[in-house]
Every structure is written in structure tokens, then in C-alpha cells.
Amino acid sequence: MNNLEKINVSAVIRGRKSNNPIVVEKLSAMTGVSDRVCKKYVQELRQEGLPIAGDEDGYFWAENPAELDHVINIIKAHIHSRQETIRSLERTRLAMLHDKQMSRLL
To answer: Which of 50, 66, 98, 106 could cross-link to 45 by cystine, CB 3.0-4.6 Å?
Structure first.
């Protein structure tokens, strides 16, 4: 990964509006960077304060707070879903430990 690649990813997305987003596969093809690396650059660019929005249709340059609100809500929903999955797995793990302890007592 290098800075020139990240600049290229940023430049391609900067040219996209919400009515013409770019999917990661096309972004990858246009920049010569793998899908995984493109996603990493998008994360880094967002952390640097660039208004990169995105949804199931692709990435685009947000032009107003409402467009960023949309992606923020999508990310929050993913976080909530993952938290629910973690809680479910933790309950399952505890049940497994309890069952194991009960079988030892029998």
C-alpha cells in the first residue's frame, strides 16, 4: 500500500456524487488496487476527515450532512448487529460451559 494509490482512490471517489456512486470492484479496476486495499484506503480517508459516503450502491463524495448521516446510520446498524451476534455467542458459550460442568457432576 502506498500514498499514491490512496490519492488515486480518493480522486476517483471525489468525482462521484450520490446519484452516481462507484462500486468497490470498479474502483479497484480503475485504480489497480485490490478490493480489500480500496476498502482500507476508504477507511483511512474517512478517518482523515474526507466526506466519503457509501451504501450498497457504492462510494461517493458526500456533498451535505444528510448524505453523511445516511452512511453513519448504516454503520451504526452494522455495529448493533455485530453486538447482538457477540451477545448471542457469549450466551451460547456460557451454556456450553454450564452443560460441560453439569455432565462432570453426573
So the answer is: 50
